[in-house]
Amino acid sequence: MIKKTLALSSSFAIANIYPSVKLFRRLSRLMKPDVEKLHKVLDEILDEIIDEHRMTDSRGSERREDLVDVLLKHNEPGNVNFLTIENVKAVITDMLFGGIDTSALAADWSMAEMMRYPEVLKEAQDEVRRVFKDKDGIDEAGFDQLDYLKMVIKEALRMHPPLPLMLPRANSEACEINGYKVLANGWGIVNAWAIGRDPKIWEDPDPFKPERFRDNAVDYKGLNFEYIPFGAGRRICPGISMSFALVMRLLATLLYHFDFALSREYR
Description:
Blueprint: H1 2-17, H2 21-28, H3 32-58, H4 67-73, H5 85-116, H6 118-131, H7 147-159, E1 169-170, E2 175-177, E3 180-182, E4 187-188, H8 192-196, H9 240-257
Antiparallel strand pairs: 1-4, 2-3
Helix pairs in contact: 1-5, 4-5, 5-6, 5-7, 5-9, 6-7
């Protein structure tokens, strides 16, 4: 199961990180049997995950409840917000392939930018070590005190959204936007990268300045359309909280235990 998951995750990672014309052409040439085979493998993995949780629950295990447990509760008859097993699988798939690689990219870019700006790295590291100075490691209970590190992540998401071109959307009816006529069922792709670097919205957008988010009400939760690293609306990324927490924990752990500096050739 783990090998299957890693193989599928790698395939989706390539699609997320390197969205090129060549890649899309290659994917478009997939024959129906290939697509069906990929879907079958993924379906088997999801069935294993769901069966494992149901068996564990039936044994009365005292383990901590996770996302799959919550979703399966909504699959029970009589639930007001009933989810079919297909709905449950769809959400799990989104979390597996939409949250793993994107979180890693956000952490990578955050570290890369901090390395380029030593003063930012020092302030973030001083904050982490101050908050957790009397502890053996990172504790999520202290995340609320990592204000500067949160600003670092937000700035990294502004400059380097994990999915620069959001997933395609199709409008249900014809409309007109700023003088442009859009036909019904017309496809549109939002350029989150360009929005995050638009000089009409962001002052001096090119330098990495986490301080721009200090006392700034603009957030990544889809309510501010000038900043949409996770998308917006009804189809906003369902794993925002999980992804941000993962990136926070990873960066805080690295900054707490290690010192970083660019080698001379890259300075």
